[in-house]
């Protein structure tokens, strides 16, 4: 029996989150069928603003992950090509549009995404802006863009500043811009949805989401310090990210606490994903949604376990913002969002810090076609003495990788690493 066919019990927090998400999405579909407006938003859009208006939303990249996990990305992307649109640009953001432009079938994932009332995106490039404009020109869905700003002065240790000293970490001009944009977004959303913005509700949402971030921080730190990895990363990802898409709700905060307590119990029991853990690996890049079993492929054969993905680490370091003005704190949460993952020195110093604290023996670095600073990440890690294997593929496009070839490539690389025992 190969590693990939072994049956293992799922982390309780992961199973609970997946059940909740299915029930929530079924409810959203029912409400949309009855005419309730909802939004489709990119992951780097300040979603808490919509929650403070009681406007349901679907995160664009989450829906892309569902399409990819159902192995339907190729079909939908090819439908883009048939319409004369590119099928090899920003696929992770394009998949929901591709589904919406494709003929509706009975086999659509989870019954299919209803047509949203409005789409919102932070326009970090011309291709992304044009992609979301197609929602409006081709499907009649209002598109509300947000600008993407940059900074001349960048703090390398941003994770130490962001919770309380975010004004210094990010710079007031960038926060000013997004705060003004959010203030302008509110009346437009009220017009499109009939909802009303509540500053008092936003304050409660920000407080809950900060509490959620603190639980995620505790979980991340616990996993970093545990003698051996107690939980599989492909369970941690849904256990963290599904509550992230519901940030600021009592359910999401309770889910983050539940994950911490479950992990804490497993660490106290001495539980280990790989009893004879020989190599600890880090996955940098977006989740490999069309082959999530990949992350457990090397446990029995190589004693290798993935101990890190960006999802829990970002949830721990990138979201908490404390302050008296909830709208400004929300702007600060998102105006440097992409920098934390992709812009050196923000990203490279953070990845290196996380690799060291998690005691990794090597890094598998997934480089998507739209990556702009991947060289700096790989260079910084190698300079720190950490081996890196680069893989070039789109994480949501199942056509971009041969799973068997990927497995063999990574297996050979793991064999070249020294055991950490």
**Any idea what the radius of gyration is?**
21 Å
Please state roughly what percent of the residues sit in beta strands, choosing from under 5%, 5-15%, 15-25%, 25-35%, 35-45% or over 45%.
Answer: 5-15%
Instruction: Characterize the overall form.
Output: globular
Q: Could you give a short account of the major beta sheet?
A: 4 strands, parallel
Count, helices: 18
Report the helical percentage: 40-55%
Q: Please give the domain count.
A: 1
Residue stretches low in confidence (pLDDT < 50, at least 5 long) are: 1-7
Beginning-to-end CA distance, first to last residue: 26 Å
Category by helix and strand content: alpha/beta
Summed up, what is this model?
It is built from 18 helices and eight strands. By secondary structure, the protein is of the alpha/beta class.
Your description of this structure?
This protein has 421 residues and is of the alpha/beta class. The protein has one domain (3-415). It is built from 18 helices and eight strands. The strands form two sheets. A four-stranded parallel beta sheet has the order 2-1-3-4, with helices on both faces. Helix 1 packs parallel to helix 10, helix 3 (60-69) crosses helix 5 and helix 5 (91-101) packs parallel to helix 6. This is 2-hydroxyacyl-CoA dehydratase. Pfam families: HGD-D.
Secondary structure layout plus pairing:
Layout: H1 12-33, E1 39-41, H2 48-51, E2 57-59, H3 60-69, H4 73-82, H5 91-101, E3 118-123, H6 126-139, E4 142-147, H7 166-170, H8 172-193, H9 199-225, H10 233-244, H11 250-269, E5 279-284, H12 299-302, E6 304-308, H13 310-317, H14 326-334, H15 337-342, H16 346-357, E7 362-367, H17 374-383, E8 388-392, H18 403-415
Helix pairs in contact: 1-10, 1-11, 3-5, 4-5, 5-6, 8-14, 9-11, 9-13, 9-14, 10-11, 16-17
């Amino acid at each position: 029996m190969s590693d990939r066919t072994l049956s293992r019990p799922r982390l309780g927090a992961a199973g609970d989150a997946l059940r909740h998400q299915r029930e929530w999405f079924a409810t959203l579909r029912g409400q949309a069928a009855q005419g309730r407006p909802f939004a489709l938003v990119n992951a780097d859009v300040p979603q808490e603003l919509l929650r403070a208006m009681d406007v349901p939303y679907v995160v664009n990249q989450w829906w892309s992950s569902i399409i990819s996990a159902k192995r339907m990305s190729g079909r939908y992307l090819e439908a883009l090509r048939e319409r004369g649109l590119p099928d090899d640009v920003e696929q992770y953001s394009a998949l929901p549009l591709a589904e919406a432009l494709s003929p509706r079938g009975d086999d659509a994932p989870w019954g299919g995404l209803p047509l949203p009332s409005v789409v919102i995106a932070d326009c970090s490039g011309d291709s992304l802006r044009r992609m979301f404009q197609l929602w409006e020109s081709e499907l009649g869905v209002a598109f509300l863009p947000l600008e993407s700003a940059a900074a001349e002065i960048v703090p390398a240790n941003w994770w130490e500043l962001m919770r309380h000293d975010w004004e210094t970490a990010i710079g007031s001009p960038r926060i000013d811009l997004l705060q003004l944009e959010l203030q302008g977004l509110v009346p437009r959303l009220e017009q499109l949805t009939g909802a009303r913005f509540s500053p008092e509700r936003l304050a409660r949402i920000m407080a809950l989401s900060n509490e959620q971030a603190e639980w995620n921080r505790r979980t991340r730190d616990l996993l970093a310090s545990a003698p051996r990895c107690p939980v599989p990363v492909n369970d941690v990802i849904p256990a963290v990210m599904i509550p992230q898409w519901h940030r600021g709700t009592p359910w999401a905060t309770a889910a983050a606490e539940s994950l911490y307590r479950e992990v804490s119990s497993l660490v106290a029991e001495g539980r280990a994903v790989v009893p004879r853990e020989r190599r600890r690996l880090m996955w940098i890049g977006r989740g490999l949604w069309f082959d999530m079993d990949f992350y457990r492929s090397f446990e029995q054969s190589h004693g290798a376990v993935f101990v890190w993905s960006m999802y829990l680490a970002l949830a721990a370091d990138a979201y908490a913002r404390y302050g008296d003005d909830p709208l400004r704190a929300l702007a600060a949460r998102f105006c440097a969002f992409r920098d934390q993952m992709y812009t050196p020195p923000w990203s490279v110093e953070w990845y290196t810090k996380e690799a060291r604290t998690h005691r990794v023996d090597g890094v598998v670095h997934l480089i998507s076609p739209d990556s702009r600073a991947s060289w700096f990440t790989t260079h910084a890690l190698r300079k720190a003495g950490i081996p890196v294997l680069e893989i070039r593929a789109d994480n949501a496009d199942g056509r971009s990788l041969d799973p068997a070839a990927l497995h063999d490539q990574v297996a050979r690389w793991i064999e070249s690493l020294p055991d950490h025992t």
